[in-house]
User: Fold Pyridine nucleotide-disulfide oxidoreductase domain-containing protein 2 from Chauna torquata.
Amino acid sequence: LLGQILDHWFESEPLKATLATDAVIGAMSSPHTPGSGYVLLHHVMGELEGRRGAWGYVAGGMGALSQAIACVAATRGAHIFTEKAVCRVLLGRDGQVQGVALRDGMEVRCKVVLSNASPQLTFLELTPKEQLPEDFAQRIRRIDTRSPVTKINVAVDRLPSFLAAPNARDGRPLPHHQCSIHLNCEGTHLLHQAFTEAAGGHPSSRPMIELCIPSALDPGLAPRGCHVVSLFTQYTPYKLAGGRPWDEQARNAYADTVFDCIEDYAPGFKASVIGRDILTPPDLERIFGLPGGNIFHGGMSLDQLYFARPAPSYSSYRSPIPGLYLCGSGAHPGGGVMGAAGRNAARVALGDFRRL
Assistant:
């Protein structure tokens, strides 16, 4: 249990709760859920530019990372098509991959297909069902995709000023504005309480909030004097109690709860808001193809990791379909902006291709 690990090493409850956020981030679990300690390890392993356990911002926003990858691929001869949705994987009579069909009727013929989509989308929607072993299909259907995440993107006309560290007179960002700011995390019991409410179908009344201000490090993201604020919040259930829909009223009610909480820490925040975009778990699923709204394409629980990701005997990025590979977060080692699954899948696919 994460709680036992933190209790062994730390005494400060606010410090333990802050560390605990990385153990439940994106997971429908509490710090007291067995196996939660691994999710913390997953988020602090590795390094950035030689600094162990460090994270960083991408200049120009996360889209700039995709653009960088695209530019490198293009220099190596790759042809990139955007706004071209795939509707199915094409198979030959021998069951071997022959390419993909696009919704506009175009077909792309190839001997190898790597899918960065979720296992559910790749195998249950894009692949002919009769070509999949039933036990494999059942395993994919049973992947736990519960998600507690509601993402709120906010535009503000001034930098938030926190009671614990008021802004400088010139309004310039201070060191804490350039880091992740955790709110409603004074104790692990608050995280557990927030989880318990969502497990019963109710958005947390005091949600865990991870607040980042990317424009404090990258001024080009917002007009002069203004800022963009990224709010990663939980816990919110995919399905609300009583069958209530996640309509505009429900979205705005939850966002108002989040903003009220931020107001307690940074008075004047609500008055500074000039725009907001609210993405609940169903929204994340509909817009980004994340099953259940899960940012990792499936829970990072111990029964869905390593040799069992996405299914036992299929953790090598290969699938039951010869030539079809999984290279996204639903494959080993799971979620996170690190590219490990893609790199590993590419090496496996390249090795197989050379043997064809």
